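Glutamate-binding protein (Corynebacterium doosanense CAU 212 = DSM 45436), 291 aa
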Amino acid sequence: MKNTTGRILAATAIVATAATALTACAGSEGGSDGLLASIEAGSVTLGTKFDQPGLGLRNADGSMSGLDVDIATEVVNRIAEKEGHAEPTIEWRETPSAQRETLIQNGEVDMIAATYSINAGRAETVSFGGPYLLTHQALLVRADETSIDSLESLDGKILCSVTGSTPAQKVKEALPGVQLQEYDTYSSCTEALRNGNVDAMTTDATILNGYSAQSPGDFTVIEMEKDGEPFTNEHYGIGVTKDDQATVDAINEALNAIIEDGTFDKIVADNLGDGQGVSPDSPGDLSFLDK
Ligand code: GLU
C-alpha cells in the first residue's frame, strides 16, 4: 500500500515536472513567442544538428561546435547587441532533417541553423533568414570504390541519404534506377557506408567533407554534375516561425554584417578547413526560388 502511494506520488511529480518544463519553453498558444522576444527575455532555444562534424556537432563533453553553431551564436548575439540586450543564454536542441519544420511550427525552437536548404515547399510552413551559404549535393564513397565516379554510374547501386532532406528527394526524382535507403541521420548513413551495407551516400558537399575529414583515408567525396552544372544548389537558411518578418529582417542584417566584416570566412576556416565546395551567399535574396 505504502509502495503504491509512493509510486502515485512519484508519477504525479513526473507529470508536474513535465508540465513545468512545457510551460518553461512555451509562449502564447503553446509555442515560442519568436526569436526577438526570446532574446529580450535572455534565453533562446536554437536548433541544429548534433552529429555533423564541422557543421553542427555535440562533443563528448557536451559542448557544441561547427559552422552552423557559430553562425547561429553570432546572429543571436549581434541581434541582442543591436537591440541593447545582454547576450542570451543558448539552449541547443537537436533538429534532424525530417523534423525541422514541425519543431519550428510547434514553437519548440526559436530558430534553426542546421544545414537547412531553403526551398519553396519548406517556405510554405516556415520563413527563412538567409541564405548565408551555398553548397551542392555530392557523393561519398569508400576510398577503395572504383565503380562510382559520377551521377550516371549510380544506376543499380544502393545509395543512402536522410529522410526529409532535399538530396534524398532529388535522387528519387532524377534517378529512379537507384535503390535509395533513407536513414534518420547522416551519421547512421555514414556507418552503413563504412560497413558496406550501401555503396554510396549522398547529401551536401559540406556534410560529406566533414565526415571524410573525420576519418582520413576512409572515404572519397565526388562532385555531382548534370550537363556541366552542379546537380543541385543548396542555399542554407535560418528557419523561423512563418511570416515573422521582423525576425527575418534582423537575421538578414546580422548575416550581411557577418559576411561583410570577414567573420563568415573565419567561421568557415575554423570549421571546414579549406572550405571546399562552400561559398558565402546573399542574405535576403530569395530570387533562386523562382527559377
Ligand atoms: N541541405 C539539405 C537539406 O536541407 C541536406 C542536409 C540536411 O538534410 O540537413 O535537406
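The longest helix spans residues 2-25. The first strand starts at residue 43 and ends at 48. ok done for today
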